[in-house]
Amino acid sequence: MYSSPIIGIIVSAILFGILHSTYGTIGQVVIPFFIGAVFAAFYKLYSNIKILIICHFMIDFVSLMAINFIGIK
To answer: What is the H or E stretch that residue 64 is in?
Structure first.
């Protein structure tokens, strides 16, 4: 049971979502959960964390630029 990659992907995604829970809304936990699942599955398939770091940076960068453009405080 503990050697299943699906369990690892789910646990990793849950932790990724929980780490984003400090922002205060459920959407900022659920969306990172799914992104974390995609990242974990990608890492399981390709073992390349560099691409995932770049993707995480780009998601954060685009989100921050959108927030600044819209003017949300």
So the answer is: helix 49-70
Contact between 13 and 43 under an 8 Å Cβ cutoff? The reply is no
Residues 59, 64, 67: CA angle, nearest 5 degrees? 125
Smallest Cα–Cα separation from 30: which of 21, 22, 39?
21
Structural domains counted in the chain: 1
* Residues comprising the chain, all counted: 73
Across the range 59-63, mean pLDDT stands at: 90
11: which 2 tokens? 């646990």
CB 16 within 8 Å of CB 42: no
Domain carrying residue 27: 5-70
pLDDT band (50, 70, 90) for residue 63: confident
